[in-house]
Design brief:
3-stranded antiparallel beta sheet, 6 strands, disordered N terminus, mainly alpha, 13 helices, 264 residues, single chain
């Protein structure tokens, strides 16, 4: 990872080289050049967009697209289900293409879920309580989207009680998403979040093996942010640097065996 105030690894060098790299990266991020005209096309091309701030995520799409406004993003998220919001890169909420959600969660979710265990324990979410919640959630969400407050109430009715006034509900929702069980659903009034069963909402999605998933993650990142180094991929994804290097190496190996040479 890069240190505070330090330029990204792939941007170091002479100032002229840095200017060229910045131009290439702006083009890769669809801030210049050809702009996608569909929300899913854009999100797929850049690997994913930060979505913790709902309004800001809509602006991020608009800045990188040809004519997509906030209504287009709402439609893609709420009606078409061509994109989905779930906890993937760095264990934070991102908007990703619907067909990518399953393999991204399978690749990244377990590590972040394990890393957050200490905080969950501090919030009263011990392993047994979390597992009971995972067992109850399919029935709880079988009737459709629920707000976080409604989800907590429904879990309590199933005997899984969570303090509704603190951070425990947010951490439980994130944990369930990192386990691949749920994701964010359609926006409610005032952009309040709702939650749904992931597979029920977007279907089974792509299934990739661990090495293939690492290579695909590197492909998406380099195509949407490159030129870049493994350190940059680690900072963006939350992968340990060793795994980020493995991902870039796996991508290069696929290219050497005749996989498409242009990342898009």
């Amino acid at each position: 990872m890069t240190g505070r105030g330090e330029r990204p690894a792939a941007s170091r060098g002479r100032d002229g080289d840095g200017d060229r790299l910045r131009r290439l990266r702006m083009r890769a991020q669809r801030l210049t050049g050809r702009r996608p005209r569909e929300v899913a096309e854009l999100v797929r091309a850049v690997g994913g967009l930060q979505a913790q701030d709902t309004k800001a995520s809509r602006l991020a799409v608009r800045a990188r697209s040809g004519g997509l406004d906030q209504e287009a993003v709402r439609r893609a998220c709420n009606r078409d289900r061509s994109v989905v919001r779930t906890w993937v890169m760095r264990g934070t909420l991102h908007m990703v293409a619907a067909e990518d959600a399953a393999w991204l969660v399978a690749l990244l979710g377990p590590g972040f879920a394990a890393g957050n265990r200490r905080r969950r324990l501090q919030l009263g979410l011990d392993d047994r309580r979390c597992e009971r919640a995972m067992e109850a959630l399919p029935a709880v969400l079988a009737g459709g989207p629920l707000s976080r407050a409604e989800l907590v109430q429904a879990l309590a009715a199933k005997g899984v009680r969570v303090d509704p006034g603190g951070q425990a509900p947010a951490h439980l929702v994130g944990y369930a998403a990192m386990r691949g069980l749920i994701c964010r659903g359609p926006d409610l009034d005032g952009d309040e979040a709702s939650y749904v069963l992931l597979e029920e909402w977007v279907g089974p999605g792509r299934v990739l093996g661990p090495d293939e998933a690492l290579a695909e993650l590197a492909r998406r990142y380099l195509g949407g942010h490159g030129p870049a180094a493994p350190e940059d991929l680690a900072a963006w994804s939350g992968l340990a640097l060793g795994r980020a290097r493995q991902a870039v190496a796996a991508r290069r190996a696929l290219l050497s065996r005749g996989s498409p040479a242009v990342d898009a």
